[in-house]
Amino acid sequence: VVVKAASSVPLGLDSPEGIEVEPGVVRGFMYENVSVLAWYAAPTVTAIEDLFRLGEPLRRQNPRGGSIVHVMRGDRLTIMDGPARDAMVRVSNELGETTAGVAVVLAVDGFLASAIRSVITGLRVRSKHSFEYRLHARCEEVLDWLPAVHQKKTGVTLDPQKLLEVLQRAAASAPSRRS
């Protein structure tokens, strides 16, 4: 039996361009019940809270949950501040057991990549709930584990090629100029 995710996606998240949730900071994309977030700058409290609100209809339509892929890239990417970390932990706790898997693609290297990995580990330790997560250097690596984890938890089978297309669109997307 193949289960399909609910198909009503708000605000054009399933369009090829996605939707810029906070200009210059994050753009959201959607495939089935997988949220793909292209981060161009450090996550902010506003962006995190807006993404959580934006996902509410999807969570109602897909009560078995979904997965999230964060694609972190760009020359404006830095470490998130303390209030943003607190907001990320709050959202993680709110999403609770409905999160099947979280993948983070770090399209940066060196000290910044190490620092971001450390922050992610800290967030994970502070979260009340357990979900599978992996850190990756390339979008293609996500396909090695997320589809199976996602299907097991949500019942939704992902087409790896379609997921890769969305991940690559996110990785290639460009932020608008911040005002």
Write the layout of secondary structure elements.
Blueprint (H helix, E strand, L loop, with lengths): L18 E4 L3 E6 L2 E8 L3 H10 L1 H6 L4 E11 L5 H14 L3 E8 L3 H17 L5 E5 L2 H4 L3 H9 L5 H13 L7
Parallel strand pairs: 3-4, 4-5, 5-6
Antiparallel strand pairs: 1-2, 2-3
Give short descriptive properties of this protein.
single chain, 6 strands, alpha/beta, disordered N terminus, 179 residues, six-stranded mixed β-sheet
Note down, in words, how this protein is organized.
The chain has 179 residues and is α/β, with parallel strands linked by helices. 41% of the residues lie in helices and 23% in strands. It has seven helices and six strands; from the N terminus they run E-E-E-H-H-E-H-E-H-E-H-H-H. It has helices at residues 45-54, 56-61, 82-95, 110-126, 139-142, 146-154, 160-172, and strands at residues 19-22, 26-31, 34-41, 66-76, 99-106, 132-136. Strands 1-2-3-4-5-6 form a six-stranded mixed beta sheet, with helices on both faces. Helix 1 (45-54) packs parallel to helix 3 (82-95). The longest helix is centred in the middle third of the chain and has 17 residues, at 110-126. The chain is globular, with a radius of gyration of 15 Å.
